[in-house]
Amino acid sequence: MGRTVTVATCALNQWALDFDGNLQRILRSIDIAKSKGARYRLGPELEICGYGCSDHYYESDTHLHSFQVLAKLLESPATQDIICDVGMPVLHRNVRYNCRVIFLNKKILLIRPKISLANAGNYRELRWFTPWNKARQVEEYFLPRIIQEVTEQETVPFGDAVLATKDTCLGAEICEELWAPNSPHIEMGLDGVEIFTNSSGSHHVLRKAHTRVDLVNSATAKNGGIYVLANQKGCDGDRLYYDGCAMISLNGETVAQGSQFSLDDVEVLVATLDLEDVRSYRAEISSRNLAASKVNPYPRVKVNFSLSCSDDVAVPTCMPIQWRHHSPEEEISLGPACWLWDYLRRSKQAGFLLPLSGGIDSSATACIVYSMCHQVCLAVRNGNAEVLADARRIVNDETYVPEDPREFCKRVFTTCYMASENSSQDTCLRAKLLAEQIGSYHINLNIDVAVKAVVGIFSMVTGRTPRFAAYGGNSRENLALQNVQARIRMVLAYLFAQLTLWTRGIAGGLLVLGSANVDESLRGYLTKYDCSSADINPIGGISKTDLKNFIQYCIENFQLTALRSIMSAPPTAELEPLVDGQVAQTDEVDMGMTYAELSIYGKLRKIAKAGPYSMFCKLINMWKEICTPREVASKVKHFFRMYSMNRHKMTTLTPSYHAENYSPDDNRFDLRPFLYNTTWSWQFRCIDKQVNAL
């Protein structure tokens, strides 16, 4: 009688529509799983085509190529004698489903469509797929000819069923179903399913990993069982970073943990577990057994195969481990760095260019690139041949080996301090010192000639010369002169990104990095088409508060002492004239609110779904010790005026790494108008009425 089963799960760095690469990564994961003795292998959600195909799911080509890859998998010797569970879109009776295709030895056992679709935040699955609403029902699915020729099957079961092997029973969940209040694993567990699987396409959000881990462990804590979770990892073509964390849990405890951030394209987790542990755990839960006696049974697909061996008494099994979570500062150091590496190698560019101002935001961006260089050198040191090959292609040197992060940084990272007559010597020195410590190729330039030329054209045409407020100009003149400086910096950033390597006799171009944080985007405290406009932005989803903590982390972990003076300096745009050689302009004064307040406004607006009146009602209690109701009303009104006046800027926001659930990203996460009635007359009257009553 078999007791122990060996199962494998994985985290794969799949890329949307990269059918060749996706196939190779799937096959490698199966090879590794088999080499470690696994009899079942689980992969991420929609791994064949890549999760992030978006509207390409509408195209028949995507379905055709997915089936072509499936045929290759079925034919491969690697997939023999192991149950393979892969994800792909399937069209059944002209309805598109997000499916698991489970097969063994060239025979498809079951196509299991997703029941609960993810349709909030960054997810739009209901746009492309339909949920399977026929609980515990299966239908015949007629296989396309390309698959029939391999499997010699005409039809296969399609629907909500479980697999019954000779020694156990397996049931599948797909990503969102774990998060649903009526998760399938509840009823499946009551019906005798002992191994639950979950293929996910779950992305990184700061401080989120523990939620996923808790859900997996709680799934088997109440009901007993083995839970196997796979996830995608990496940047598969957009703003999200899928953060791996493949795991295996037994009876409420983690027994295998995968990495959350790494440059390994294929990571396989294998665990050997005792089925008798599940059965004995369930035996004493009387409430579970009473419910199980009344459960509506699932259709079972019988599989003439065992996950265990007949003589396995002496086989060692895995023991529970303590899950190790990253701190938020570590998450910022690692997640965006891995995302940048994927973007760099897949875009086939030669590196990055960053306008480095000497402030916290651009310095944090520089530190993330430096962390990326650390990760590359570490991966090469650990024998990652793919990372080495990518690094050699990026630097255009077939013999190169990245060993020192500073040296590698010099090759792939250019920083540029763009001074004006309004820049202080302090920020210039801070930028220069940080560039020296991380090793970037650093450029100092002055933009005054270009600024004067642009303003000169305006003066020549109109006969009027705008002045800064410090010299007697009004607010319109003052803002326009600041915007000219900011926009010229963007133009110069792209010019230097295209031609800097050319001047150095090096092939290729550079990706321009932006460095506007999530709070500034929310408030609109940026010039449209300035240096916030870039190719990508690794900190666009991160708050100023978290960035400050990350800077402190870099001081301690990377020994970047130049960051100390950057941390202590007040944030400033340096776009207005200096006073006695010193910066007179500061961000928080310009914005009329602090960064700490902005984070609170952002979380209430997006996560708590609060409009002006609800935000006021919540804040009069949150801030009752520090503000009167009238002061709270004034702050809330100011925020909503500024937010609505500047919302149009979000339509051109640089694609940013998604890290916060209060991101104002207009692309698909935070869908709002960009032309508001900025008086908010009705809403503000409600606030005023409440203030007067209080």
Automatic annotation (TrEMBL):
A GO BP annotation: 'de novo' NAD+ biosynthetic process from L-tryptophan
EC number per UniProt: 6.3.5.1
InterPro entries in UniProt: C-N_Hydrolase, C-N_Hydrolase_sf, Gln-dep_NAD_synthase, NAD/GMP_synthase, NAD_synthase, Rossmann-like_a/b/a_fold
PROSITE patterns from the UniProt entry: CN_HYDROLASE
GO molecular function: ATP binding; glutaminase activity; NAD+ synthase (glutamine-hydrolyzing) activity
One term under GO cellular component: cytosol
Pathway linked to the protein: Cofactor biosynthesis; NAD(+) biosynthesis; NAD(+) from deamido-NAD(+) (L-Gln route): step 1/1
Superkingdom field: Eukaryota
Subunit description: Homohexamer.
Protein known as: Glutamine-dependent NAD(+) synthetase
Gene: Nadsyn1
